[in-house]
Predict the structure.
Amino acid sequence: MVQSLEQLLTPSEPRSAPSQKAVTREVEYLVNHKDHIHYQARENEGAPMGSGAVESLCRQLQNRFKSCGQFWSRQGLTHLLTINVLFKNQSARFLWN
């Protein structure tokens, strides 16, 4: 894969400077992060592969904190989200000590 990407850095036809800069930036990103984006390895480690769990949690939090008639300041919402995270991580005991 890296060899294929590096071939993009030496185009067979001339590119404009901004186009070449964009290709170089993207190739360097992919080469530098190849270990992070190796999905098969991440899946073998048991990491979730989709965004469904995150999207579901966002929807749950929005429904919980945006109920009819509820208004939160940024500071108040931050405190509530902190409490929510503590409960989800089964660390709520820290609230009472």
Summary: The mean pLDDT is 83. The CA atoms of residues 6 and 27 lie 7 Å apart.
